[in-house]
Amino acid sequence: MENVVTNPQVYEYSIMHRAALFLLFFFLFIFNFTHAQDATLSRKARETYEKAQEAWQARKLPDAIALFEKVLEQEPNSYDANLRLAQIYELQRNADLTKKYYSKAIQLRPSTPQSAAALQWMGRYHFEAQRYDSAQVYFERALALFPAKSSLARLAEKAIASSKFAREAVKNPLSIQKRSLGDTINFLNTQYFPVMTADNETLIFTGLTENRDENIYTTHRIKGGSGADRWDVPEEISASINTTNNEGTCSVSADGRTLVFTACNRPDGYGSCDLYIARKEGKDWSAPLNLGQEINTRDWESQPSLSADGHMLYFASDRKGGQGKRDIWVTKLDEKGKWTAPKNLGAHINTADEENAPFIHANGRTLFYASNGFPGMGGFDIFISQRTDTIWSQSINIGYPINTIADQVGLFIASDGQKAYYTDDGSEGKGRSLLYTFNLPQQVKDMIVPTRYAKGKVFDKKTNTPLASAIDLFDLKTQQKVGEFSSDGKTGSFLAVLNNGGEYAFYVSKTGYLFKSLSFTVNDSTSFVDLDIPLEAIEKDRAEVLNNIFFKTGEYSLDEKSKVELGKMVDFLGKNKTVKIEISGHTDDVGSDTENMELSRQRAQSVQQYLQQSGIVADRITFKGYGETQPVAPNDSQENRQKNRRIEWRIL
Asked: Which windows of the sequence hold TPR repeats (predicted)?
């Protein structure tokens, strides 16, 4: 999987990477230039050499080459002339001639400090050819010649570690069969950084036009067609987002309704490249807003990645206070809807070199990103780290051939952990950047907790009018809120990500309506939960079921898992202070009528007492047991009996 840089806006990091390498080589040129010339040169050869040096310093490279070669005609064993020719051909990226003259220089003076650069280049030459044993030998010889603890020594040490890593990685490759997303998606010469909604139905990516205008495009999966990856014709995402300037490297929330993207050199920008946010209602995107000076600085901010619920934002920046050059940072929305001061992800993620292109998986705890600071396959590799609470695990190289000698950036993993999407610049051999996909190998799947999702619409039960509502997701086992979502005001649609294996409480609320509670368990056999949710207006005799009130069989004491639901009930009554309600208990037909009537009354009373103890005045709450007299389903199955065993609340 290759990823050659093509765009100065999106891929600015790699330009900087190459610039840093050039400066390193230039430093080595100066280092070499200061050492004495070959003492054994004849007078004529020395005169030619000095002319060659003058041409070199004037950057007249063809003249310098001719003169240095003339020196070698006179003195074939001139160390300096061989070294200079190798350096010139290295600048010109002529690998064969660079190798020829560096090899001769090393042969002549294998142990002089000035040969360290030659040894380092030879190591890279063999590394790129996947001759990792030879590469390691050359890197080790270079390390012995560099000053101890210098930046050059650190570079050689990392190269040695990469040689060892790459040798083993190539011996144990991941099973990857990549497939182009086709000409419909790859309609431009350059398209990159794909992202998707959690239902895998909408694909958004960045494309570069022939006029060098960087825009954001979107397309939708064709349902019912042949092939798993058939997509509709891409369209520009919105005239309010794409402009004549460059917009790209975007991230989208799981429901596809919040977009964060990079734009550079805008009038309202704080630095060279800033992050902007836009929100979608119905089919329309809002005008983008700069995320503000808490996020954007005078430095470079780019390559955002939103969490599934849109409340956490990861991005790359070279702002002050980091671990190295460019680092991964994170910010989150506070209770007032403001982004907090970004925090550096720390030394398990960031290095003294460069990290970029973060991608937080829909599960909220698996981070993929690119780094050239750890041992790897060469250049930027994709790494993975897992978050436990606020601690990130030590990063792991995702492996070969996802990572190769080329730069790898911008990997996206579907929410269900089955497929990856990425940019490949090398497969066609035509200099194009195309979007590809592949099925994740099992070794990578094992590192990702897949997610499922709940999808549906919220609407007024009486009028069928779509409603904008708040949706809270709670883990019933921990009683902790694990997600905040909302439904679209124009369509009522929503999408909420669910972690696999969770037992969830789902709460939908809107001012002027009774809140709706739902409960469900997600397992491996469930890809998504389809939930169309009608809300009842606050009117007399409107009722809802409290689906997350739990009792042990035959008992009326409230289970601890009921406290989340009861807290929602307290909150509703606190906001609607004139509302009075009846709590009613209901049972199935198992047991005697008398026992069921008493059990239902006791359970309703338990709820009433909890609400009263929580500060709701007694005259606002009545309770009553109905036993088995008001079933909502026939008592002919375990599932139907469970529906009949319920607690309801009704507006009086």
From this structure: 79-112, 116-149
Q: Which of these, 351, 292, 294, 293, lies nearest to 326 by C-alpha position? A: 351
Residue type, 133: D
Eight-state DSSP code of residue 172: S
Q: What is the DSSP string of 515-571?
A: -EEEEEE--TT-SEEEEEEEE-BS-TT-EEE-TT--B-TT--SBPGGGHHHHHHHHH
Could you tell me which residues are beta bridge partners of residue 588? Answer: none
* DSSP string across 383-431: EEEEEETTEEPPPEE--TTTS-SS-----EE-TTSSEEEEEESSTTSSS
Cis geometry, peptide bond prior to residue 8 (ω within 30 degrees of 0)? no
Contacts of residue 602, defined as CB under 8 A and 6 or more positions apart, other chains included, come to 556, 585, 625
- Residue 77 CA from chain centroid, whole number: 54
Q: Residue 486 has what pLDDT?
A: 93
* Cβ atoms < 10 Å from Cβ of 197: 25
- C-alpha 7/C-alpha 15 separation (Å) is 9
Minimal CA–CA distance to 206: which of 66, 302, 89?
302
348 in Cβ contact with 402 (< 8 Å): no
Structure confidence at residue 378 (pLDDT) = 87
d(CA 495, CA 511): 21
∠ CA 406-410-411, rounded to 5°: 95
Strands 581-586 and 621-625: parallel
The reported pLDDT for the residue numbered 426 is: 59
The pTM for the full model equals: 0.86
Q: How many helices (H) and strands (E) does the chain have?
A: 12, 33
What percentage of residues in the chain have a pLDDT greater than 70? 91
Whether the CB-CB separation of 285 and 277 falls below 8 Å is answered with no
C-alpha 353: how far from chain center: 20
Collect the ranges in the chain with pLDDT lower than 50. 1-36, 429
CA–CA dist 354, 440 (Å, integer): 26
